[in-house]
Amino acid sequence: MQAARHVRFMSTSRSLVCSHVHAQKHFLRASTSRAQSRSVASTAAAASQTPPPPPPPSQGRWRYFLQTLGRVTLVTFDPSKKTLVILGSGWGATSLLKGLDTSDYNTACHTFNSAIVVSPKNFFLFTPLLPSVAVGTLNARSILQPTRYLTRHKERQVLVIEAEAKEVDPVKKTVTLSDDSEIQGQISSTTIPYDYLVYAVGAETQTFGIPGVREHACFMKELHDAEKMQRRFLDCVESAAFPGQSDEEKDRLLHMVVVGGGPTGIELSGELRDFLEEDLKSWYPELASRIRITLVEALPNVLPSFSKELIAYTERTFKESDIEILTKTMVRKVNEKSVVLKGPDGVEREVPCGMVVWAAGNTSRQITRDLMAKLPEGQTNKRGITLDDHLRMKGARDIFAIGDCTASSYAPTAQVASQQGSYLSRVFKLLAKKDKLEADLSHAEISEEAEKLKKQIDKIKLKPFHYSHQGSLAYIGSDKAIADLPIFGREWTSGGVATFMFWRSAYLSTLFSLRNRSLVAGDWVRVKLWGRDVSRE
Amino acid sequence: MQAARHVRFMSTSRSLVCSHVHAQKHFLRASTSRAQSRSVASTAAAASQTPPPPPPPSQGRWRYFLQTLGRVTLVTFDPSKKTLVILGSGWGATSLLKGLDTSDYNTACHTFNSAIVVSPKNFFLFTPLLPSVAVGTLNARSILQPTRYLTRHKERQVLVIEAEAKEVDPVKKTVTLSDDSEIQGQISSTTIPYDYLVYAVGAETQTFGIPGVREHACFMKELHDAEKMQRRFLDCVESAAFPGQSDEEKDRLLHMVVVGGGPTGIELSGELRDFLEEDLKSWYPELASRIRITLVEALPNVLPSFSKELIAYTERTFKESDIEILTKTMVRKVNEKSVVLKGPDGVEREVPCGMVVWAAGNTSRQITRDLMAKLPEGQTNKRGITLDDHLRMKGARDIFAIGDCTASSYAPTAQVASQQGSYLSRVFKLLAKKDKLEADLSHAEISEEAEKLKKQIDKIKLKPFHYSHQGSLAYIGSDKAIADLPIFGREWTSGGVATFMFWRSAYLSTLFSLRNRSLVAGDWVRVKLWGRDVSRE
Question: CB A22 to CB B534 under 8 A?
Fold first, then answer.
């Protein structure tokens, strides 16, 4: 299925774009699985039928007519431009959107849009700082960037749809999506066609089927997870402060168990320790000394992706901070008021606790499993989507997959997804060029010209994706961070307060916008001056 | 029932207080309705029995023993000191806590506490700025102040309990409370005795029994109301942006109905208009011009507490801002996708809308109605608690009631509650003095001394509460505010941009702490620089 029209703007002034979009009738029908072919004339008719919206447009009828006429005459078919649909708004999708030349694409659905972004969240979340939100070091909104902030000032408008992708049909080349939020319009699900699909839906939290995890543990993946954890943690503290609570019950309520010794679990434990030392000791002096943090990891050590020195350094720092690390320990069950652990001795014991935070890895989303099941030949890896060297999904040449939904040799990190996204933005530049040449070729009448075009097409070569590791960073609490950095081919390791300053500056510079940078820096100053807030919202 | 013990501190150093509180065993038993009499010896025994908490205290045994001994010898009974229980953490309670001399009181429950504060929220919420939170002008946490920030550094520790008061027994003089939050300890409800009770539980939103209000409307009273409204509003915008939505449905989704023409409704409409003009027009150009705000008020005009000029000025400003005001209009029903209005012509019509915000007044909470029912002679006003001139609840001399739970000649405003709270802090100073003298009198052996004490007691006179109106302020959007200020006995009215600056500085100075002042001011700068966030959390 091909994208429909090629549109050139005479002007990109806001009023023009604005009134223009008004003139668009709903080109997408609910549950329509293919783009409807419509003539230029029907577009004009649709535009003239539009009833004036309640605060009526301030422009005169003549001006409106002339503008419409002007636009219609400029609408020309350009079947070489394709429809690009991007599923997701995380690291991969955002990085791609940042680099994408939107003028290379147009959608089959909306006349004046280029790419389509579909995500249940209308924002990008800077996930590495989520543990800071969970203890109130950062405001939630400081690490959000609305996707429209990125797409709004692109050369051609990007259609952002807040909806959850429900099904991908790699044969018909369509995506079915649905608005599952609390408030829904008359139309809340639809099917859109794509020429190229970027599949960047991420993953969901892996619970390994352990009973009670989904019911009783807090995750640390989405913004609402961090907010829930903050609320619960302070709820534990307040419940422990309830008059008449026994010492034993206080100790239970104030025992926090973090499962997962990866960067998220480590950073969360470190942040919790900071919250305890820097704030709770002042405001809950009678309880603070009872708060305990235990980190549980199934492997023989925490932070498997870091070097041995840094692992030892982290373990030492945690010991000084009274954070207990239990390695080679499995979680067997999570109850409402306890967690059942199986230690290296093979003995199961029930540990009372107030809260369990689950930061123990990823697994594929349902939609990913469904999509893979439709391509049984190429897709057999249970961990996620198998790719070729150019990040194409094996078995579906027009689907590119990036980030945590894929199974590659790289770790499921923001860094990998981000590099994949920016690689794809370069790929799509070349693909657009190639598609244009191929369209020209199909219309070429003279064989000489065709020969020339063929040569040009052959020249376009996509380089395979190559991941360049920039290093690993983690905050471990007490104003200390650790860093594993490859410099001139050698591994350079560093830990301590200076590394913490480096961690902060690295994170600041990785934040996509100056706005977010200043918000995060402002929050750091706020916490330095005023401490963290202990209100339980 | 009298409070139990009189405690003097030799030192108020944190470590002392801290380890001290550790030493306290749970003096309050669940569902115990009276204070248990315990000897000094039993306190010492309890202290020595305390098992060392998991991260053990760093002090040596000898030091611990000496400290305990020192403290025990200082614990002396002072039956003249009474137990003060404060229900609530809003304007009234916070203002009282700010002025209260905690050394005048001790509780029957916890040896080293003075007053007891019970509230389902562990923070004070600066309600007048709630509409600003609802559109993202302010961060939620900028207008919160944890109650412990206020009580923590008082001369004697104040026991803050995060729980909901369920029942007040004015005969037994007890309050039953319960922790209804998600996480509860073994003990989650208890009954505490009081000598004096300050009843400042506020009110809940009045729905006048209109069908659908509770199910479909957003309130604007608590923090979660503002957050819910923000989420819903952006949900409406995103649902309207869903591809294929008809123009009619877009108009419905983007029609916001605010019910109630008081300051809350007016400020919310103004803030919504700012959000629309300053942010949504940039990020949703294709939808922004369809967003409509309608303000519904049953009375003949909005802002009944303001002067006529300012009402006219507000109506004019709203007209310029395209905010429709429907006066003399009643809401008959709220549906999921519409609101049924009855206009001055008596005709009912169904108006489609995306969201209804309900800011239409207060009504008594269940606990207040229950308490009033127990005192049928003095309490007959359905609006709330009837008071005498000293803010005592009629029919219960030991209960003082302040704020929105009362029915007085004053408007239910923050200003009134705040002045009542600070009046009570002076009352409790005098009451403590009187109680001390009366206790001395009961022990006086020489009649001459008794006569002298009697005279001193007679001299203590409580002045009746007098409300001094400092003026009314409201923000009406477009960087304009209105102010009605009584200056030298004359009413001075002002509206416009200069008044907006005054509004800001007045609100800043009313915020209880420098911390909150700097956070709110910081948010204003943030919005000026970066605009409001359109992420739907």
Answer: no
Interface check A397 vs B, CB under 8 A: no
Sheet containing strand A348-352, strands side by side:
A330-334, A338-342, A348-352
* pLDDT, mean over chain B: 86
| Amino acid residing at A442 | S
End-to-end CA separation in angstroms for chain B: 50
pLDDT attached to residue A491? 86
| Pairing between β-strand B480-487 and β-strand B472-477 as defined by DSSP bridges | antiparallel
Rounded to 5 degrees, what are φ and ψ at B99? -90, -10
Note the pTM of the prediction, 2 decimals. 0.85
Tokens of A470: 């920039």
Residue of A152, A157, A238 best to disrupt the B interface, most CBs of B under 10 A: A238
d(CA A36, CA A56): 30
- pLDDT of the residue at A453: 93
d(CA A306, CA A475): 13
Distance of CA A262 to the CA centre of its chain: 19
**Which one, of B454, B494, B459, B458, lies nearest residue B474 by Cα?**
B494
DSSP H/E element including A216: helix A213-216
| DSSP output for B139-189 | -GGGGEEEHHHHHTTSSSEEEEEE-EEEEEETTTTEEEEE--SSS--S--E
| Cα angle value A373/A376/A382 (rounded, 5°) | 65
What is the predicted pLDDT for the residue at A145?
95
Whether chain A has a CB inside 8 Å of the CB on B346: the answer is no
pLDDT tens for each residue of A454-494:
999 999 998 999 999 999 999 999 999 999 999 888 889 99
The pair phi, psi for residue A6, each rounded to 5°, is -115, 125
B:299-318 residues touching chain A, CB 8 A cutoff: none
Q: Tell me, what's the pLDDT at B443?
A: 85
Average pLDDT for A272-277: 96
> For residue B228, which amino acid is it?
K
Which residue type, as a one-letter code, is found at position B232? R
3-class DSSP state of A468? coil
CA nearest to B519, candidates B153, B232, B219, B137:
B137
Give residue B396's identity as a one-letter amino acid code: A
C-alpha B108/C-alpha B84 separation (Å) is 9
The Cα B64–Cα A264 span in angstroms is: 39
E strands in A285-386: 292-296, 323-326, 330-334, 338-342, 348-352, 355-358, 362-363
DSSP secondary structure code for residue A276 in this structure: I
**What's the pLDDT tens digit per position in B1-57?**
343 333 333 333 333 333 333 333 333 333 333 333 333 333 333 333 444 334 434
Residue B18, chain A, CB below 8 Å: the answer is: yes
Q: Which two tokens stand for residue A115?
A: 């790419």
| Residue among B214, B208, B223, B218 nearest B355 (CA) | B218
Q: How many helices (H) and strands (E) does chain B have?
A: 18, 24
Q: What angle do CA B185, B187, B191 make, to 5 degrees?
A: 140
Pairwise CA distance, residues A269 & A276, whole Å:
11
Q: Judge contact between B334 and B494, C-beta under 8 A.
A: no
Relative to beta strand B204-205, strand B472-477 is unpaired
Which candidate, A199, A192, A202, places its Cα nearest to that of A374?
Answer: A199
- pLDDT higher than threshold 70 for residue A27: no
Q: Within an 8 Å CB–CB cutoff, is residue A34 touching chain B?
A: no
Partner-chain contact A26 B57, CB within 8 Å: no
- How far apart are alpha carbons A28 and A107 in whole angstroms? 11
Task: Find residue A485's DSSP bridge partners.
Answer: A492
B519 and chain A in contact, CB less than 8 A = yes
Of B3, B424, B397, B391, nearest to B193 by C-alpha is: B3
Which tens digit of pLDDT belongs to each residue from A95-109? 999 999 999 998 765
